[in-house]
Design goal:
Helix content: over 70%
Radius of gyration: 12 Å
Largest sheet: none
Number of strands: 0
Order of helices and strands: HH
């Protein structure tokens, strides 16, 4: 489950970068969602050890 969160964050962040480069809508929201999920993933990893 936790590994899926990491890959979800990476994929959403990649799409957000694509949206930003092409100046499409919702790029900011995708970037927040992608980087936010990666941040949550790494916080969980820190407190799991």
């Amino acid at each position: 489950m936790i590994l899926k969160l990491k890959y979800f964050g990476f994929s959403v962040t990649c799409f957000a970068i694509l949206f930003k480069l092409l100046s499409w809508q919702y790029a900011d929201k995708l970037l927040i969602a992608g980087l936010g999920s990666l941040g949550i993933y790494y916080l969980i990893r820190i407190f799991k050890k």
